[in-house]
Design brief:
- The protein has about 500 residues and is of the alpha/beta class.
- The chain is about 40% helix and about 20% strand.
- The protein contains 16 helices and 20 strands.
- It has a 7-stranded mixed β-sheet with strand order 14-15-16-13-12-17-18, with helices on both faces.
- Strand 4 and strand 5 form a beta hairpin.
- Helix 2 packs antiparallel against helix 4.
- The termini are far apart.
- Bound molecules: NADPH dihydro-nicotinamide-adenine-dinucleotide phosphate (NDP).
Length: about 500
């Protein structure tokens, strides 16, 4: 095999495009209320586009306050019967959703990639299988709630409003719906404006799985739709994933209302590489940590903390590795980095990288070509930055890595914790004792050791500080959806 230098550092791959034939994209998508697809009462619609081409995909109903009202009413009406259903029957329904998702996995993967811009290999191998796994996992809990909380009886909360973001549209719907349904709640779900299509395809799956009408309602629209849902007095609990700014506004809106709230917000994770780490493995972890899903990941390893003695080696290997990343058509099975989700997000990323450069950072990007149309940003490394710089402090939510150095483990920990966020972190070292010591010092909800971005439905996920509160996944994820009463 020719070495990389002799082929100009880049291996050419023949295109291998996933066919879109499996998906029928409708011209118009409606709201899903009371088990039926209905137009918004105002008749308003918005356009969802393919961010890789800027081509319109479909018109989608824009729910107003009166549609949210109808959805909450439907959820309220369905609540008593759903809560009283034998837990083993509820489990069957949730299992059926999981099975149907698996049956239609390819269709979901292609639609997710078309609407959101993420590489097909990620939607196919990560988003869709994990979404199904969440429904399977929580289906298993539905008839075991009696044993989940020692000496306490779990009851459903009632009607839950769920507002989800655009970075993992189907997976976030699954994270929210699966525990809510397994515990006997009914739901009104608000998908993100730029990625509504897989949630609406999921509505078809809910019908096929015979989820009773009104148990899940889906209202598409923009921030105003989310705000109407959050402030609706008929909702008993809000579960939100998104920006810290909107999370803060929701917390203010809910103060004093007695509504329960869980918030999964932003992050600025430290990925700590000690000098004794397996460097090639660490470089793979750095790449996966920040360039997976174009860096549109709340737990992305966006701050590389590398021990000073190996900085040059790590950056050299990282640059070489990044030259191999394939950027472009998200439907191509070879693509590593897809399209940025929206023009707005591209604007935010561009602005922050310019700020990083203006503050004195050394910006490095690979030489890869990028398509003319669509929203693209080259994977980027910004070295020579200080902890006070915006690119080190603010969540960029794009394929941009800031690099800081440290000399001692104490300095690594101090720098890692010097952030308003506390969602995740990574540690790379061959020494188990150093790994455990470091992990114990880090104020982060999830700490990965010699790996990054590993998810499993059995494992709780959530943050500290401005990354929010409450946990999703595992038995902890059930707690957010139940009222617990002491057993007499
Ligand atoms: P938002 O927080 O605005 O979006 C998340 C969800 O909340 C969307 O469904 C959105 O609707 C909805 N929403 C917006 N405003 C309100 C409101 N006032 N009340 C209730 N719901 C509302 O994130 P953005 O899409 O604007 O992204 C901005 C930044 O947020 C990103 O750059 C990133 O840093 C961060 N972010 C973090 C995420 C995470 O997982 N932690 C996920 C997404 C973003 P709509 O999409 O229609 O605006």
């Amino acid at each position: 095999m020719a070495d990389l230098e002799s082929v100009g550092g880049f291996i050419e791959y023949a295109p291998s495009r996933e066919s879109t034939d499996i998906v029928t994209i409708k011209d118009r998508y409606q709201l899903f209320i009371g088990g039926k697809f209905v137009d918004a009462k105002s008749g308003a619609t918005f356009t969802t586009i393919n961010p890789a081409t800027e081509a319109p995909l479909a018109q989608v109903a824009e729910a107003g306050a009166d549609d949210v009202e109808a959805a909450v009413k439907a959820a309220r009406k369905a609540a008593p019967k759903w809560a009283k259903l034998a837990p083993s029957e509820r489990a069957k329904v949730v299992y059926r959703i999981a099975r149907q998702l698996q049956e239609r996995a390819r269709e979901f993967a292609v639609l997710e990639t078309l609407d959101g811009g993420k590489p097909i290999k990620e939607s196919r191998d990560v988003d869709v299988p994990l979404a199904a796994a969440h429904f399977f996992y929580y289906a298993g809990w539905a008839d075991k709630l009696e044993w989940a909380f020692a000496n306490r009886t779990a009851r459903p909360i009632g009607v839950v409003g769920q507002v989800i973001p655009w970075n993992f549209p189907l997976l976030m719907a699954a994270w929210k719906l699966a525990p809510a349904l397994a515990t006997g709640n009914t739901v009104v779900l608000k998908p993100a404006e730029t990625t509504p299509l897989t949630a609406l395809l999921l509505a078809e799956v809910l019908q096929e799985a015979e989820v009773p009408p009104g148990v899940v309602n889906i209202v598409t629209g923009a921030g105003a739709t989310g705000a109407a849902l959050v402030s609706h007095p008929g909702v008993d609990k809000i579960a939100f994933t998104g920006s810290t700014g909107v999370g803060r506004a929701i917390q203010e809106a809910l103060a004093g209302t007695g509504k329960r709230l869980t918030l999964e917000l932003g992050g600025k994770a430290a990925n700590i590489v000690y000098e004794d780490a397996a460097i090639d493995q660490a470089v793979e972890g750095i790449v996966n940590g920040i360039f997976f899903n174009q860096g549109h990941v709340c737990c992305a390893g966006s701050r590389l903390l590398v021990q000073e003695s190996v900085q040059e080696l790590v950056l050299d290997k990282l640059h070489r590795r990044m030259e191999q990343l394939r950027i472009g058509d998200p439907l191509d099975k070879n693509t590593d980095v897809g399209a940025i989700n929206s023009a707005e997000q591209l604007g935010r990323i561009t602005e922050l990288v310019e700020a990083g450069e203006a503050e004195g950072g050394d910006v490095w990007q690979p030489s890869c070509p990028i398509p003319d149309k669509g929203f693209w940003f080259r994977p980027t490394v910004i070295a020579n930055v200080a902890q006070s710089h915006r690119v080190v402090r603010e969540e960029i939510f794009g394929p941009v890595l800031s690099v800081l150095t440290f000399r001692t483990p104490e300095e690594a920990v101090a720098k890692a914790n010097n952030t308003a966020y506390g969602l995740s972190a990574g540690i790379w070292t061959e020494k188990g004792s150093k790994m455990l010591w470091t992990a114990n010092q880090l104020k982060a909800g999830v700490v990965w050791s010699n790996t990054f971005n590993q998810f499993d439905p059995t494992s709780p996920f959530g943050g500290f500080k401005e990354s929010g509160f409450g946990r999703e996944g595992g038995i902890h994820g059930l707690e957010a959806y139940v009222e617990l009463e002491a057993r007499s």
